[in-house]
Amino acid sequence: MDNQVVAEALTLTLIGVGTAFVLLIVLMLSIKVMSYVLAKFITKPMVNRTERDSLATQNNKDKVLAATLGVAAYRALLSKAKSE
55 and 29, same structural domain? Predict the structure, then answer.
């Protein structure tokens, strides 16, 4: 290989790696700044704790009901298959 080609390849590689590194640093800094700004201006939670707890309780009740109905339907299907 020609020395000039190797030198250009190394130069382009260093430029690419440097650019990627700088862009990642800029991205990390922008995330830190945005989290600081959000923490500074938004001090109260978006959803009250009681609302969140009631939503979770209702969601759990719905899941329990769906599971119960699923098991009942499956057992009915099995008993129907056994009787045939």
Answer: no
Is there a single domain that holds both residue 1 and residue 34? yes
Residue 47: which region, alpha, beta or left (left: phi > 0; alpha: psi -120 to 50)?
Answer: beta
pLDDT of 38 reads 86
CA distance 15 to 20: 9
Range of the domain at 76: 46-84
How far apart, in whole angstroms, are the C-alpha atoms of residue 34 and residue 46?
17
10 Å Cβ neighbour count for 83? 6
Asked whether residue 13 falls in the same domain as residue 32, the answer is yes
Confidence tier at 47 by pLDDT (50, 70, 90): low
Q: Between 59 and 78, name the one with better pLDDT.
A: 78
**Separation in Å, CA 2 to CA 5, 11, 12, 13, 68:** 5, 14, 16, 17, 75
